[in-house]
Amino acid sequence: GIDLAADDAPSTSHYTFDDKGRVLGVFGEAFGGKDTGKERKECKNSGRFIHIPRQVLRRRILEAVRPGTIRWNSALEGFRTSKKNPKVVKVKLAGGDVIDAALLVGS
Questions:
Q1: What is the DSSP secondary-structure string of 11-59?
Q2: For the residues of 56-80, what is the DSSP string, one character each?
């Protein structure tokens, strides 16, 4: 796996917005009422979400996989879990290519 703990940019508040930019809701430790100040201890596998910049995540993934493994700039048509192996994602690209993958990341 990829250890992202050192790349984490901790966040204690999260906001959800609608398509007009209005706040739909807030959540996170900052709104929980408990003191999570400087005595807060972060640790590996603490169970909270990791927040890292997209380019850092890209670099860390690229360092961990074989060259040519990642398909950039592909338009997704659809995907489903393989019937034979639920750990495989069947990915169909707009150009007609079908790929068996262990992980599908989109943005």
A1: -S-EEEE-TTS-EEEEESGGGSSS--STT----TT-SSPP---HHHHHH
A2: HHHHHHHHHS-TT----S--EEEEE
pLDDT in tens, 45-58: 555 666 778 888 88
Contacts of 38-44 with CB under 8 Å at 24 or more apart are 42/5, 42/8, 42/10, 44/3, 44/5
Distance of CA 105 to the CA centre of its chain: 8
Distance CA(64)–CA(44), nearest Å, equals 19
pTM recorded for the entire structure: 0.50
Query: What's the N-to-C CA distance of the chain in angstroms?
Result: 21
Q: How many CB atoms lie within 10 A of CB 91?
A: 20
